Amino acid sequence: MPTPSTAPLAFDLDGTLSRRARSMTASAIREILKVTQQPDVISFAGGLPAPELFPLDEVRAASNRVLDVYGPAALQYSTTEGHAPLREWIGAQAGIPARNVQIVTGSQQGLDLLGKVLIDEGDVVLVEAPTYLGALQSFQPYLPRYVQVPTDDGGIDVDALEEVLKTTRAKLLYAVPNFQNPTGRTLSAERRRRLVELTAQHGVLLIEDDPYGQLRFTGEAAPSLYSLGLELHGDADRNHVIYSSSFSKTLVPGLRDAWVQAAAPIINKLIQAKQGADLHTPTFNQMIIAELVDSVLPRQIERVRQAYGERARLMLDRIHADFPAGVQSTTPEGGMFLWLTLPQGVDTQALLPRAVARKVAYVPGSPFYALGGGENTMRLSYSNATPEQITRGIRALGDTLREALAGS
């Protein structure tokens, strides 16, 4: 038993946390996923790829080839920049040198590292309203000041953005132009060029987050913001557009392979930031992906496109049949999500327990707004549900909404 003179001080451990740590919040999606682990709950909450579509045999065969070809090197430490053949392949798809490509451990790490090297406390970060919750979580510890830009069915309202830029000195704009998470909307082709030009004119970095771009199942593809920036500037090292993407949605999420394309000054700082974070993305995982990109990836993308297109159409059909009047839905052309807007006064956060009681779950829309709002919205994911689950789940959710709108 310590004497009073040697007794340890009573630490206020919460008080020892940094301002950055105190600004962190839990992911609303991850918290909801804890509730939906019950096997009888149909979850439209998490944006999870369909596991039955994973190319198990192909990944197994690629793993064996990697070990045969590279031997112990496949299991050794490697360079921070990433596996050279994989970076070269990615660069070739974009028409840029491999030196402008940085491999990261999932897109989420890419966003975190970009926040670390780009955002100073108080910098204005422009985001869509609504925007991807994971980006808000990644950037928040660096203490930015968020400014929301309105969106509509064509994506970012570029006219509204132009008005914002007349009075606001912004550091960067973060956007998900293809099949946006959370709304499923796509930025129209005519707005893309103007968005790139506007941000260039005002000295605003533009982060294009594009994990879903290959998953188009209807409509016409539009050029990436990165390619338009490359066209505008004529050089990868002068391009103000930063591009982020991933193999998680097209191949498998568990290998956690993603990348960032950017000008050399940004890539060089990302390398240094990543050295401090995890040294490098797992060597073996990168080598497996490199084995799959030419042979398996194109087939896998087509397989996923077809499945998600069928599930999205079924979900929309059931929404139209089973939901009460007054509920509006987006119509995605690809990706994994759609967005519902309910009549004003309906709080989807408060409604969630009633839906879970009917064995169906979703993500309330308000966490996707950087500055609040969207209480009457919700995100649904169709990617990880079977057709039978979609039919049953939408019926149960429709009953929940009908009850809420009736004032029960």
Automatic annotation (TrEMBL):
Gene3D superfamilies: Aspartate Aminotransferase, domain 1, Type I PLP-dependent aspartate aminotransferase-like (Major domain)
Segments forming domain Aminotransferase class I/classII large: 53-397
Pfam families: Aminotran_1_2
Keyword Transferase: yes
Cofactors named for this entry: pyridoxal 5'-phosphate
Keywords: Aminotransferase, Pyridoxal phosphate, Transferase
Organism this protein belongs to: Deinococcus daejeonensis
Coiled coil (residue ranges): none
Protein name per the record: 2-aminoadipate aminotransferase
GO molecular function: transaminase activity
